[in-house]
Backbone:
């Protein structure tokens, strides 16, 4: 049989880390589809290009990258034409050292140079040498990315990159560079393009998204509150979210929107890290527990049913039993509904890595478990209050087992399963919550 069209080449992407990386992986896929006519595959064995989008926020995350990379090595030995690329935060931090440690890696690129992938791959093929480009050409990447294509009801839009906060334990400012905001008009153009494709929910993304300070065409700058109001004015936009926020940038203008902008979801992820002022100061977080609680009080005044989630680091160097008790107290007082909580992991090159730390691992592990159990208990308390209420949900998926079963996300970020036709995928509908189990919820479609 003569094949008229050779089948397109395939790429495989494995993503580690945060939502910024998820977003960047989507953009890598867009670039390879648009510039190279390639197709995405879920099996590395079928791929001509294998990309790892990496995370270095904790040691475990970083080591996982190298062990997973090692598993790609036999594929490369069997097919020398295969291209293996490493991007993201480990790439940014380690650069050429990655090729030293894993010589079968062909290209190394950073979060700000992913749009150059086609050129890097071509240069690797021409020169026969591994290529490394982990520079920070500021906001250039967005000018070189193809327009987003989507069929989903919800989409992410990155509005700022990097972090200039330099918390004493964190690698992100080193891997992602300084805070840089995209111009206001660029973001609006991307949002309008998504809304025209039927997207009803927009999540604005940034490492400290509420530090957004974008330029207008006339040279003035605008903040996140301005941006949210402008997007909410677009017909078709039904729900708005933003993440991750820093408590230091939680302005009154932003808080006020919870009273005046109903499209803003009743959920805020606001990482606090610790409930002890002593620890917060050693972490260089730039706020006190009292200041954090005052933000929460104002948010609740503006939007009484707002659901709050947070990040915690347990076992920061020198964390005493009293410090930890203060964190537990804060969790009870605020009533956090979910958390990303991890043991502190010393990161090379950060100031905290030099701090003395005498607390044994078992004690830290026990603290972490206690914290996580408490948050789970609080989440159950909220869940059990929901039956009988009607929730507006965005239908996110159709069950694989039964196409008449849908799953939707509520304003407060919880998922509910209910019966409904697959045609509702990507739409907003009202669902009455009927039953709650430990982690899942059932409901019934409310027909008007
Ligand atoms: N910019 C966001 C969070 C970015 S990193 C903020 O400041 O809130 C995501 C989370 O990883 C952090 O909130 C923190 O809880 C965790 N983290 C960062 N560095 C860490 C380290 N060295 N050890 C353990 N957890 C860490
Ligand atoms: Fe890391 Fe702090 Fe920046 Fe968050 S604000 S990314 S924790 S340095
Ligand atoms: Fe990890 Fe980089 Fe995100 S270190 S958490 S992938 S910013």
Residues:
């Amino acid at each position: 049989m003569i094949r008229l069209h050779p089948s397109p080449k395939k790429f495989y992407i494995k993503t580690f880390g945060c939502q910024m990386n998820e977003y960047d992986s989507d953009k890598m896929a867009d670039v390879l589809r648009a510039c190279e006519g390639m197709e995405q595959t879920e099996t590395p064995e079928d791929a001509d290009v294998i990309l790892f989008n990496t995370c270095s926020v904790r040691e475990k995350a970083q080591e996982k990258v190298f062990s997973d990379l090692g598993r790609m090595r036999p594929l490369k030995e069997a097919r020398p034409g295969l291209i293996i690329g490493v991007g993201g935060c480990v790439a940014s931090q380690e650069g050429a050292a990655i090729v030293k440690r894993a010589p079968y890696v062909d290209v190394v690129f950073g979060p700000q140079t992913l749009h150059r992938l086609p050129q890097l791959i071509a240069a690797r093929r021409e020169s026969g040498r591994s290529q490394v480009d982990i520079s920070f050409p500021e906001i250039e990447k967005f000018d070189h990315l193809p327009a987003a294509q989507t069929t989903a009801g919800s989409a992410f839009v990155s509005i700022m990159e990097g972090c200039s906060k330099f918390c004493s334990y964190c690698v992100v400012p080193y891997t992602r560079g300084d805070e840089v905001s995209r111009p206001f008009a660029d973001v609006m153009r991307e949002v309008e393009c998504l809304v025209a494709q039927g997207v009803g929910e927009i999540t604005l993304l940034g490492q400290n998204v509420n530090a957004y300070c974008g330029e207008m065409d006339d040279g003035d700058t605008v903040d996140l509150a301005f941006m949210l109001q402008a997007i909410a004015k677009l017909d078709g936009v039904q729900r708005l979210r933003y993440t991750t926020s820093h408590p230091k940038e939680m302005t009154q203008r932003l808080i006020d929107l919870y009273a005046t902008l109903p499209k803003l979801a009743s959920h805020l992820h606001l990482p606090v890290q610790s409930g002890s002022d002593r620890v917060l100061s050693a972490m260089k977080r730039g706020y006190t527990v009292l200041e954090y609680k005052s933000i929460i009080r104002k948010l609740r005044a503006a939007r009484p049913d707002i659901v709050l989630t947070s990040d915690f680091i347990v076992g920061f160097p020198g964390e005493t039993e009293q410090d930890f008790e203060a964190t537990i107290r804060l969790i009870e007082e605020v009533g956090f509904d979910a958390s990303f909580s991890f043991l502190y992991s010393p990161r090379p090159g950060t100031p905290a890595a030099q701090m003395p730390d005498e607390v044994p691992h078992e004690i830290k592990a026990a603290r972490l478990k206690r914290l996580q159990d408490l948050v789970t208990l609080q989440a159950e308390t909220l869940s059990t209050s929901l039956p009988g209420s009607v929730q507006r949900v965005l239908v996110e998926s159709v069950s694989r087992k039964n196409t008449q079963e849908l799953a939707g996300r509520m304003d407060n970020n919880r998922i509910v399963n209910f019966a409904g036709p697959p045609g509702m995928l990507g739409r907003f509908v009202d669902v009455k919550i009927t039953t709650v189990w430990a982690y899942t919820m059932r409901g019934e479609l409310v027909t008007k």
The mean pLDDT is 93. Residues 163, 165-167, 170, 172-173, 207-208, 246 surround iron/sulfur cluster (ligand 2) (CB under 6 Å). The radius of gyration is 23 Å.
